[in-house]
Design a protein that fits this description.
The chain has helices at 2-7, 23-37, 45-61, 75-80. It has 81 residues and is an all-alpha fold. It is built from four helices and no strands. The protein has a domain at 15-63. InterPro entries: Integrase_cat-core, RNaseH-like_sf, RNaseH_sf. This is Integrase core domain protein. Residues 1-81 form the Integrase catalytic domain.
């Protein structure tokens, strides 16, 4: 919270027991759990970071997203140019 204050970022917390107030984050967290976190037994934090980095790159660069017409997310900025 101190970091956010230093950067001028206002934090808004959701109400306890109301995950629907932050549906995008909840959906992303569910996807992370189901697509890679539940599939591995990690020995170190470095191993977790490596798998997370690889998954995020694939998610942003290789995976079609139906929300933007079936394009991969990395294609969308190129289409706008």
């Amino acid at each position: 919270m101190e970091w956010a204050e230093h950067k001028g970022i206002a934090l808004a917390h959701i109400q306890p027991g109301k995950p629907q107030q932050n549906a995008y984050v909840e959906r992303y967290n569910r996807r992370v759990r189901h697509e890679w976190l539940d599939l591995h037994i990690f020995a170190t934090l470095d191993e977790v970071q490596q798998v997370a980095t690889e998954w995020l790159w694939s998610y942003n660069n290789e995976r079609p997203n139906m929300g933007n017409g079936g394009m991969i997310p990395a294609q969308k900025p190129r289409m706008a140019a």
